[in-house]
Design brief:
By secondary structure, the chain is mostly helical. The protein has helices at 2-13, 22-41, 61-64, 69-72, 81-97, 105-110.
Length: 118
Amino acid sequence: MQQVGLKKSFNDAGRARGLLSGDLWYSQQAFRCLNQAIGRCIRHRYDYGAVILLDERFRHHRNQSMLSRWVKGIVKTEPKFAQALESLRAFYDRILEDPPKNPHAPALAEKGITQIGS
């Protein structure tokens, strides 16, 4: 943690040279890690899953704007946990009824390649 403090101080001191502020640098690093984690849960366009961010800061556009482009448009916020749980249940009901289909899956299967996540 001492190294993080040193890096933040270094950035704050270098603002005149065009460096990000220490807080902005730290925030970008945190969102980079978060975006990597989300990408590991949902690996490709025909995959599906729910990533639950239990933090009220994600209600703010400022924080949602730091998420990956493909995630920004699908973020849902709910005011109460029960509503979030119902929204999650409805999402999986829709997926069970009509799962995402890779149009290339039959051609891949002929080559012995199975779809990731199927």
